[in-house]
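Researcher: Next sequence.
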Amino acid sequence: MYGAVLDAEGSRIEVGEAAVICENAVLRGSAVASDQPVLVDDHVFVGPHATLLGCEVGRCAYVATTATVLQCARLGAGSVVAVGALVHARTVLPDEYFVPPHTVALDAPVRLLAPGDPGLAEAVGRVGFAQVAFGVDAEWTDRISRYEHIAEVRVAEFGAHADDEVLNLG
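Model: Next structure:
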């Protein structure tokens, strides 16, 4: 739909038959840390303002409005990621699994944590997101160093397009 962003960034994006990618959804592949395509199977619904980053979405899955699925995660067939939910990096959802609204799903086997859960920060730290997404190996507790390195990786990735030309296909 209008306003959706599909950005392969050196990888690829595949969208299956009868899949719906709603307005302002973002699908972004990457090859920064490893080849992380976005693979959306048949009959998938990706809601408005949803974000899929380097992940796989099985057939007949439903990714609701503002839901996010991070790098190397896999959603099983018929799974649901409800409004505002987050499926963290490397998480594997079984077929027909339901992630409730505004919940964080992580690990394999999957476990669910509420936003206010006192163990959430530690659990997210164990995921190793900076390594998975950006190839940055930095301690979870050293946020300044980690984000500095992540910013450098992103600047280099996007800077590679500084000389891109807009083609007039009309």
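Model: The longest helix spans residues 143-159. The chain has three helices and 17 strands.
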